[in-house]
Amino acid sequence: MTAPAWSLSPHGSRPWAQTLPGPAWSNSHLPSPLSAPQNIAVYEWLPSFLQKTPPEYKGYRPFLDPSISSEFVAASEQFLSTMVPPGVYMRNASCHFQGVINRNSSVSRALRVCNSYWSREHPSLQSAEDVDALLLGMTSQIAEREDHVVVEDVRDFWPGPLKFSRTDHLASCLQRGRDLGLPSYNKARAALGLPPMTRWQDINTALSRSDDTVLEATASLYNQDLSWLELLPGGLLESHGDPGPLFSTIVLDQFVRLRDGDRYWFENTRNGLFSKKEIEEIRNTTLRDVLVAVINVDPGALQPSVFVWHKGDPCPQPRQLSTEGLPACAPYVVRDYFEGSGFGFGVTIGTLCCFPLVSLLSAWIVARLRMRNFKRLQGQDCQSIVSEKLVGGTEALEWQGRKEPCRPVLLHLQPGQIRVVDGSLTVLRTIQLQPPQQVNLILSSNHGRRTLLLKIPKEYDLVLLFNLEEERQVLVENLRAALKESGLSFQEWELREQELMRAAVTREQRSHLLETFFRHLFSQVLDINQADAGTLPLDSSQKVREALTCELSRAEFAESLGLKPQDMFVESMFSLADKDGNGYLSFREFLDILVVFMKGSPEEKSHLMFRMYDFDGNGLISKDEFIRMLRSFIEISNNCLSKAQLAEVVESMFQESGFQDKEELTWEDFHFMLRDHDSELRFTQLCVKGVDVPEVIKDLCRRASYISQEKICPSPRVSARCSRSSVETELTPQRLQCPMDTDPPQEIRRRFGKKVTSFQPLLFTEAHREKFQRSRLHQTMQQFKRFIENYRRHIGCVAVFYAITGGLFLERAYYYAFAAHHTGITDTTRVGIILSRGTAASISFMFSYILLTMCRNLITFLRETFLNCYVPFDAAVDFHRLIASTAIVLTVLHSVGHVVNVYLFSISPLSVLSCLFPGLFHDDGSEFPQKYYWWFFQTVPGLTGVVLLLVLAIMYVFASHHFRRCSFRGFWLTHHLYILLYVLLIIHGSFALIQLPRFHIFFLVPAIIYGGDKLVSLSRKKVEISVVKAELLPSGVTYLRFQRPQGFEYKSGQWVRIACLALGTTEYHPFTLTSAPHEDTLSLHIRAAGPWTTRLREIYSAPTGDRCARYPKLYLDGPFGEGHQEWHKFEVSVLVGGGIGVTPFASILKDLVFKSSVSCQVFCKKVSAPSSHRLVAPSSLSWYPSVPFSPAFVLGFPELGSSKLV
């Protein structure tokens, strides 16, 4: 504490010249300013401190290391702290100990040490005389005893860092010793040549005798193991009025090395700095001489050695200072580095969390705009087909059942009928109003009186919900008028809405009733046990009474046959069966028709057909009526003959039968003509010669699934032709053969290039029946078993992928949790660093290898290799979505970890940060860390991380199923941000803030593969392709036929991606090829299901210009494969599809027909297309003339010819 006083003395610039005896020193011969302090420190202070004299100086020793040892740094600081008193006296030269003015203006006997740290504006230290008084007071004051006791000013109130104003000096020294790696107490003694201690009492025998509790507590702290005792506690325990052997040896060794290893030591005569006389003069200079010269005090006011006060020396201290009578130490103050940043930090985190919401709002706006444009385009199309009589209906919501959603409908009341249409004016239902029906109107009496139940006999009910009672009342009045106009009686009453819902017969309930209806119907026709047919419910409700008298409407009759209500066959058969003419078929009426078709003789069948198509009822069938009959059966079989071709066939049949001169046929003529031309008429699915059952009746039989196929087809040959599954049609070469008792037509033999044998059994499988287990556990286990069987490849690949992902996470988490303590970052932010580093490794792996799922060309190639047996390449897109979903979850966790890191780094002192990030921070002593916004927006990882979150929010929201369906262009454009995503990912990790960059380890290989795959696509998808033909087909389907690029090879069932140059050169959409591989051109059938496809239909609606250049050109990318391209590898292929999803089957069937026609060996013997007309409406495929489509999902072969067999 005295060094600054005598080195920066305010009394003179050359105090040393005054302190040295002898003649005055000139400026050129003044000794070095360090010569006197060297002498005072080594030859005056050190002997008084160690109570021993240092060895004699032998001269400069150049090979001696004079550096400061770690043991000396820790030992000197800690041991000297035991000698510091709680206060310091101040006195003048006349030995008057003056009072000290404290900061609170109080007066105390001494200057309190703990309140004087780094204090330059103390009230008692305002002048040079005050500093002199402080120095004089210190010369008279006696230090604390050298022992293990330390005053609280040093122990609890030592000046701490900026964050904590107070700290424990001893604890800091102990921690610093551990940081420096000091040896243990016994190892240090052994290294310095001192004997190691074996007993705790031997450390300090005097302390052991006077107070052994200290040694016992210390021994207990170190588990009674003396080898664990650290250097600093052991050295303190040794001292008892002196530094002790260990500390004395360390301090003496350090001072001797400093002296002997210093080339410029004042006693070194070889350096030429001082002569022997001058050296002797310096040796005689003491600190007392310096103080006398500096502060101009009487030498009698100071003892001979200012470092030691003996009894009898001048100016004794009043008493040994203690904390009593001194002001209390100022309490410690904790500085919050995050103070004032909480609000901004919360706003920043809230803003980051709002990125998905902002992206969601943007996507919603885009979707609304796109849907508005799409509806405008749809409205333009609908305006041309909407008739005036359908305009102005009543709006309502139709309640379809408790488990079904309500749907908006429009009701149009017309003479004799009620038409229910949807928003696109598609007719959903037509209710006939014919006498003598009685209609019941049931109105709700509660819940706003907004519900109406229209109960029509022999049909399911119509339940309507309105917004207001007034709207319902308007419809009720209109219904009354319409019913009166139609001559129908009706009744009205009210019920509570809940009772009204329970009383309603829904479409589902009606379907169950019809199912039982058909079961009982066939049980009588085929002599099936009644127990197998099921029973009707036997309570007395109105529903049961209606079920017992169940009658089929025309629409239900057509639906049961799998046909359209407007088909000629349906009209003719229904009119013939409806004997009472009430517009419905009763159980008995349906039974009479069914018995003839299934058990009748050929004469009965032909007579029934004769009556059906004798439209004028004159007992004769004209040639026009015969043509209409064949036309109706062609509609059923969905074969395709032009009017001229059909007329040619009829003329040929009349001529071969000898009826070329007749214009009308009697029943006998009709019967013999059908019998003689049975083989030619089989393309119409009309069987008269034998006992075979028409296909439409077979379809009806299959609705009652309990009916054995042998019941329908009794003969072995015919039963082989019947399917044993649900609604199914076999497309095989044998399917086109004639019965055994007729010769196969020459056209078939020639078409398939081989002779058709007299007996070629069809391929079929026998259903494996298992006992139904009603146990929920058994059903759950069965479902789980089936799931494992069907998705074992998927499960294996997903398990491997996530095992790697989890391993990467655990490796990084383990490293930063247990193996990175040397970096110090784990001690600062354990949870945050473990979470952020673990997820970073997994994210790097996922975002890298997700590229492989989009390498379409590579996937198409690998599907043809053995790897397809182990890797489900067809599920690449689903796997892409799964990886993306997992990656975004890990990204959120990664962001949460970094939010924790930023908070902890924002409250960590600069000294800590400079240790954690030495390349980023320099410890300038300010201790103030950077604010949170610096980490977020002023560092490369922080700024790129924020931008990455924004990019991911945009990409993920626009890639969701809803917005992808509403605005594919928005999805397409935003998904191209993946380039920016990977650039930001590379930059994000390249700063090496915490660890060296590792992203390239995962990214390099997938990026090279993906880049090569994109180059392959780029080499072909930027070639302009001309559209040869464009045709607008029904149901909003656009047919495109375009040139086949040179070298373009594909397989049936594959798909391509196209871009229309008129709609943008970068937006590609996938579509399945409907052309066959042997064709010279490519074709697509595209349904207008969205804005892009609707706009495409509009563009190709009115082409102008030359023959080849009139249509906008296309870009083509592909082909790419799916699972159905391998149909030819199996003996039996089952094609399941609905709606526009049947387009791959067109290419497959064309390919099958072509390969059969050129005598190609086809491994596939049977192609089945099971479906349901409920799933695939016949009208939805009316656009497809090239591959006819029957209501029973029968796909024909128009390429087989057009003479007599199609």
UniProtKB/TrEMBL annotation:
The protein's role, per its UniProt record: Generates hydrogen peroxide which is required for the activity of thyroid peroxidase/TPO and lactoperoxidase/LPO. Plays a role in thyroid hormones synthesis and lactoperoxidase-mediated antimicrobial defense at the surface of mucosa. May have its own peroxidase activity through its N-terminal peroxidase-like domain.
Give every FAD-binding FR-type domain span.
Answer: 1020-1126
Q: Which GO terms describe its biological process?
A: defense response; hormone biosynthetic process; hydrogen peroxide catabolic process; response to oxidative stress; superoxide anion generation; thyroid hormone generation
Pathway given for this chain reads:
Hormone biosynthesis; thyroid hormone biosynthesis
The protein's enzyme class: oxidoreductase
Quick one: which gene encodes this? LOC116546369
Q: Which family does it belong to?
A: In the N-terminal section; belongs to the peroxidase family.
Stored Pfam families:
An_peroxidase, EF-hand_1, FAD_binding_8, Ferric_reduct
One GO term describing the cellular component: NADPH oxidase complex
Q: Which domain of life is it from?
A: Eukaryota
**Cell inner membrane as a keyword?**
no
> Per its UniProt record, what PANTHER family does this chain match?
DUAL OXIDASE 1, NADPH OXIDASE
Supply one GO molecular-function term.
Answer: NAD(P)H oxidase H2O2-forming activity
Q: Which InterPro entries match?
A: EF-hand-dom_pair, EF_Hand_1_Ca_BS, EF_hand_dom, FAD-bd_8, FAD-bd_FR_type, Fe3_Rdtase_TM_dom, FNR_nucleotide-bd, Haem_peroxidase_animal
Keywords tagged on the record: Calcium, Hydrogen peroxide, Membrane, Metal-binding, Oxidoreductase, Peroxidase, Thyroid hormones biosynthesis, Transmembrane, Transmembrane helix
What is the designated name of this protein? NAD(P)H oxidase (H2O2-forming)
Keyword set includes Coiled coil: no
Q: Membrane-spanning regions, if any?
A: 343-367, 791-810, 830-852, 902-921, 933-959, 971-993
E.C. number, please?
1.6.3.1
Task: From the Swiss-Prot or TrEMBL record, state where the protein is found.
Answer: Apical cell membrane
